[in-house]
UniProtKB/TrEMBL annotation:
This is 4-hydroxy-3-methylbut-2-en-1-yl diphosphate synthase (flavodoxin). Pathway: Isoprenoid biosynthesis; isopentenyl diphosphate biosynthesis via DXP pathway; isopentenyl diphosphate from 1-deoxy-D-xylulose 5-phosphate: step 5/6. Binds 1 [4Fe-4S] cluster. GO terms for molecular function: 4 iron, 4 sulfur cluster binding; 4-hydroxy-3-methylbut-2-en-1-yl diphosphate synthase activity (ferredoxin); 4-hydroxy-3-methylbut-2-enyl-diphosphate synthase activity (flavodoxin); iron ion binding. Residues 299-400 form the IspG C-terminal domain.
Length: 412
């Protein structure tokens, strides 16, 4: 499915400008991420923000949980600007956000967006006052706000009200339904209150995050029918490794296929010492494999079987995939459309030639027990046969030449 055919079915939402990025409206689905550094550690935070942005995160959220963190935000913004990294920063505020935004105007000004959770901004009368302070600050500095409801921190008074209403109804629903309804109600009532205070609809993004796939799908389907706010998608705690990737893909792909969702974040738990930017790559791959956006050339590779020389074939596939992703940092700035290029690295002659012909550039290895002799196909035509121990280097050169010849250079 092409991006254009899918875009006609996107749920209509009000576009929200966040720095140079638009969420919702007619804009493509936006990738975002969040640092896991202590924001007070400016050097570490700057380094991670820059890495996430370089990988492809179009917004980066940072924790602002203390006076020291609030003081660090303007310096972080300035250092990123000095590096030529202008990715919009989103401030993540919780219990004391009203104090930090009001008390540190440089922080409030330096951020491109605020994220607040209506379930933990206070209780009773204080909740209303503190929520109003957050929204008034956003209005003062003309900053958009994500009202992010989380089922682990729902407003207890609102939840009790929904439970009472359900209990008194003629056909009470189960506890799971009540929880989902409470999430949606909290988001919509908070957004309505923000508009009453003065925050315009085109400055509001909503999210209702849960950790279960089916719950997330049901919540967002219902939320999407009851408002036209821009929506942020993501499981609140996706998990680690393949579990987190699979859960996020299962939930978000269904919603995105239905046209629901304007920005996504994949909340992966990194393995010890793992790369934070992996969540950005997973988000990109979800959107690209669904045909919604293109970020890097796609590399098709067969899984391997008894016919393939697994080590040689696997090393070549990994080599090429890593190469094109690394080169995209340069190609993206120099050439138009190179992210749409397709490559195929196939392991034997059964499906190899056919798959290679369907890609812009494909290579087909002979299989197990044979000397490395690999025909290369360019736009469906066999152009050369690579032999010997330098196949990977020679294939990379062919890819480089193709990019230079086929994609127009950007006007600098």
């Amino acid at each position: 499915m092409s991006q254009n055919s899918f875009s006609t079915r996107r749920r209509e939402s009000v576009g929200v400008q966040v720095g140079s990025i638009t969420i919702g409206g007619s804009a493509p689905v936006v990738i975002q991420s969040m640092t896991n550094t202590d924001t007070v550690n400016e050097a570490a935070t700057v380094a991670q923000v820059e890495e996430l942005a370089r990988t492809g995160s179009e917004l980066v959220r940072i924790t602002v949980n203390s006076a020291e963190a609030a003081k660090a935000v303007p310096n972080i913004r300035a250092k990123l600007n000095d590096m030529g990294c202008y990715v919009p920063l989103v401030g993540d505020f919780h219990f004391n956000g009203h104090k930090l935004l009001a008390g540190y105007p440089d922080c409030a000004e330096s951020l491109s967006k605020y994220r607040i959770n209506p379930g933990n901004v206070g209780y009773g009368k204080k909740r209303d006052e503190q929520f109003a302070t957050l929204i008034e600050t956003a209005c003062k500095y003309d900053k958009p706000v994500r009202i992010g409801v989380n089922w682990g921190s729902l407003d207890p008074e609102m939840l009790a009200r929904i439970m009472d209403e359900n209990a008194k109804s003629k056909k009470p629903e189960d506890a799971a339904y009540v929880m989902r309804e409470a999430l949606i109600t909290s988001a919509l009532e908070s957004a309505a209150k923000a508009e009453e205070i003065g925050l315009k609809r085109n400055r509001i993004v909503l999210s209702c995050k849960v950790s279960g796939v089916q719950d997330l799908i049901m919540v967002y389907r219902e939320l999407a029918t009851r408002c036209n706010y821009a929506l942020h998608l993501g499981l609140t705690e996706a998990g680690m490794g393949s579990k987190g990737i699979v859960a996020s893909t299962a939930a978000l792909s269904i919603l995105l296929q239905e046209g629901i969702g304007d920005t996504i974040r994949i909340s992966l738990t990194p393995e010890p010492g793992g790369d934070r930017s992996r969540e950005v790559i997973v988000g990109q791959e979800i959107l690209q494999t669904m045909g919604l956006r293109a970020f890097v050339p796609l590399v098709a590779a067969c899984p391997g079987c008894g016919r393939t020389t697994s080590t040689y074939f696997q090393e070549l596939a990994e080599n090429i995939q890593s190469y094109v992703r690394n080169e995209m940092t340069v190609w993206r700035d120099q050439y138009d459309g190179v992210e749409n290029m397709t490559l195929a690295v196939m392991g034997c002659v059964v499906n190899g030639p056919g798959e290679s012909k369907h890609a812009n550039i494909g290579i087909s290895l002979p299989g197990s027990g044979e000397n490395p002799v690999a025909p290369v196909y360019v736009d469906g035509q066999k152009t050369v046969t690579l032999k010997g121990n330098n196949i990977a280097d020679e294939f990379r050169q062919i890819v480089d030449q193709y990019v230079q010849e086929k994609y127009p250079k950007k006007i600098q």
